[in-house]
Amino acid sequence: MIVSTIASHSSLQIVQGAKKEGFKTRLYVSPKRKNFYSSLPIIDELIVTPDMKAILDDDGIIVPHGSFVAYLGIEAIEKSKGKFFGNKRFLKWETKFNLVDKALKKAKIPQVEAVDLSEVREDDLYFVRIEGPKGGSDHFIAYGRELEKRLSEVKEPYRIERFIDGVFVYVHFFCSPILERLELFGVDERLVIADANKRRPFEPLPYTILGNKSIALRESLLPELYDYGLAFVESMKDLEPPGVIGPFALHFAYDGEFRCIGFASRIDGGSNAKHWYSSLYWGEEVMMGQRIAKELCLALDEGRLEEVIT
Amino acid sequence: MIVSTIASHSSLQIVQGAKKEGFKTRLYVSPKRKNFYSSLPIIDELIVTPDMKAILDDDGIIVPHGSFVAYLGIEAIEKSKGKFFGNKRFLKWETKFNLVDKALKKAKIPQVEAVDLSEVREDDLYFVRIEGPKGGSDHFIAYGRELEKRLSEVKEPYRIERFIDGVFVYVHFFCSPILERLELFGVDERLVIADANKRRPFEPLPYTILGNKSIALRESLLPELYDYGLAFVESMKDLEPPGVIGPFALHFAYDGEFRCIGFASRIDGGSNAKHWYSSLYWGEEVMMGQRIAKELCLALDEGRLEEVIT
Amino acid sequence: MIVSTIASHSSLQIVQGAKKEGFKTRLYVSPKRKNFYSSLPIIDELIVTPDMKAILDDDGIIVPHGSFVAYLGIEAIEKSKGKFFGNKRFLKWETKFNLVDKALKKAKIPQVEAVDLSEVREDDLYFVRIEGPKGGSDHFIAYGRELEKRLSEVKEPYRIERFIDGVFVYVHFFCSPILERLELFGVDERLVIADANKRRPFEPLPYTILGNKSIALRESLLPELYDYGLAFVESMKDLEPPGVIGPFALHFAYDGEFRCIGFASRIDGGSNAKHWYSSLYWGEEVMMGQRIAKELCLALDEGRLEEVIT
Structural domain tally of chain B? Predict the structure, then answer.
């Protein structure tokens, strides 16, 4: 059996994991990325094409990741006859403010406070979040007095958030329908261009994500996060049946308490930063890509593949 | 044989390590943390109880960690008939300024300079350290001119330190009575709420620890740190016989030279951030929790258990 | 067969890797570093000597690292009759601005912009880079208005760079003549003293490197970096035949695009921060030190040792 994906985002671990679990692997790669991906001995079939939409007709099991919506569009994915790992109707839930709010409210996960421009105070700091996952490049921080002018230049839907004086952590989960278990896989922190301020006089800089760093969160903070994970899974069962299948991530600001700033409704790029919690469940460290392949194996063994693909 | 601990701090690696080395595992968990810990397949016996003091009567080998003193108190631990891994009389040494000073002075490990309020300069920056390990939440930085007012609100014993213009690293050791060897296990950096300043205009923020990040220190800095570790072990042999047994950590500020800011007289939470140095001693990567279990195995094999428990 | 190196920089992973691949190991260590290195069970022969030049007559395979040029000097290394892993004439290329420029220009890797003092603007920020790898300790940032005075105190060759509002990442490669393959091994970020500014009011602080942190770069950024690696290898074939053999690193600033700030013409200290990309090529995680030993094994097996030593 073949596992297929697009060469981007988290495809390295998806392909490697599939290979380790005994699948053949197929990767759709754009011509300008060919040198790197063709150097790797873990890819059985490399399809070099400028048009990623070719994957919509793939006959293997397609593993979506954070670049799928950008490359293919929600509609094309939902209409595809391809066998997608996970619940492909869940993919859209991270892309719109109203869906994000609906999911988090139902799960009773505390959210960062959104404010109206009319409520803004001149000297307070705000975080302006642009709708949809864009690698953070368009989000910005600004004082209340700057907001009106700055927002007049924003073309996309946005939200003004009360700035949280804290750090941001991204919590990775795997929800297994076959084992009926939620696994907490790890935590990362983003490395963003604005982090340059740790070495220089302050300058407002873009929140563009450049990479991820593995974090060992204080163990006493994990049970609360795990409960949020459970509540999220529960809420999505109702909102988008059959609910979450496989990887997702909850994103939090922490200033002494956690406030959710969004989620990833698929494997999150932060899982590229290796973490050891998987060994608590699997006896050895397994990255999220391999965890997906393990779920496929378990499902195939029990003749339950249709429970983990849509 | 059973290894027991409290579900917090570094219990995940303690329990996992014990399991890997062939022990049964028992975990005391408060009801609100039950969901997370009960999802893990590495715990043989989960005792759900609001009262952690139940562990004081445990009949297994009790592995203390950074939450023990907070949950149980020094006195109850020292009086307990339970078999504690390590020297339980060493646990108190990190909790009082005078004990910390005594240990570091005897070991001749350079310390960060403490100053008296009367010596303080208006425009210099100071770090106010609150006595005892509190996860950093009450420490604060302030300019000399602000100190008097700020300190008038502090209820606990504190110390004013000259602020060090540098970074903070936490060095993890394991002292093996069975192998008669000191092992340098790794180095971490804390992630604290105040780190938020890497992305925003400066604001004094709490030093509350949120997590830990693994650091590969410049190799040329390790021999000096190892020597400090050796000296610390040597000094504790006299100060609190039989001295250090098992894990401890030395905490340093570095601005071109190391100055000690304290230590952990038990497994340090920073060992939750995985590091590879253990493989130098063990051929494979072993976390501190597993290292503890290995010491127990070595001791049991040689009939020397009483040398590693108190 | 014996693998020899100097006890510093990345010798831990070099020695461990050699041991894992079946070599004997020999380490030259200065007396004040003896305690640490003699505690490690992976060193077969520890030569304690205040004079590192003893390694120049070593009869094993000498693996150079970032401390070799500082301890031995380029000339002594090039004249040595010892069998050095890699192209020892490549070692000098990182040490002079004109060689760095020549290599990067030929490879068409975009560089950070160097400016003349006369072009400097009063209120712009600049980065002054001191020639040669010095662990970053003499580099500094300054506003244009401060430059003339600051530079008057600099004794060594320097370069004024336009300050880049971004973060710095270090990309580790292994170039295998035996497998005819370039492997992308991982990415790190430096921990420098100036990073202290993430928790305090800004103060210009030294860029002295204290350690390294592993970074999982966004996967979509890797193909471009891999292409730079290929181009670099290609250009060095002409500039310093037989070109790059084994490990090297390219150093970049990133503010939305990559600009090269230099390179390491040997194993880079940042490879001490463990990364998982090696498992893409080798099925298991292998540090750069072990990768070197693997190349030696491959070469020995095929009777091609002379292709990987000089």
Answer: 3
Q: Which stretches of chain A sit within 8 Å of chain B by CB?
A: 125, 141, 163, 165-167, 169, 181-184, 187, 189, 192, 194-195, 197-198, 202, 205, 207, 213-223, 226-227, 230, 254-256, 276-277, 279-281
Task: Please write the tens of the pLDDT for every residue from B230-270.
Answer: 999 999 999 999 999 999 999 999 999 999 999 999 999 99
- Please give the Cα distance from B202 to B189 (Å, whole number): 20
Q: Which residues pair with C172 in a beta bridge?
A: C186, C249
Q: Residues in chain A with pLDDT < 50?
A: none
Is C260 found in the same domain as C175? yes
Residue range of the domain that includes B19:
2-84
A196 and A296 within one domain:
yes
Residues C45 and C77 in one domain: yes
Structure confidence at residue A134 (pLDDT): 72
B284 shares a domain with B186: yes
Query: Which among B16, B35, B195 is the nearest to A279, CB-wise?
Result: B16
pLDDT exceeds 90 at position B137? no
Other Cβ atoms less than 10 A from the Cβ of C18: the count is: 30
The reply to whether ipTM tops 0.90 is: yes
Residues B98 and B137 placed together within one structural domain of the fold: no
CA–CA dist C52, C29 (Å, integer): 8
Task: List residues of chain C with CB under 8 Å from any CB of chain A.
Answer: 125, 141, 163, 165-167, 169, 181-184, 187, 189, 192, 194-195, 197-198, 202, 205, 207, 213-223, 226-227, 230, 254-256, 276-277, 279-281
Residue B89 within any structural domain of the chain: no
Domain presence at residue C303:
no
Specify whether C102 is located in the same domain as C234. yes
Q: Where residue B29 sits, what CATH number does that domain have?
A: 3.40.50.20
- Tokens 């005892």 correspond to B132
Q: Across the interface, do A255 and B12 touch by the CB < 8 Å criterion?
A: no
Tokens encoding A262? 């969004």
Helix or strand holding residue A97 (H, E): helix A97-106
Give B168's contacts (C-beta < 8 A, 6+ positions apart): B189, B190, B251, B252, B253, B254, B261
Name the average pLDDT for chain A. Answer: 97
Q: Supply the pLDDT for residue A182.
A: 98
Do the domain assignments include residue C305? no
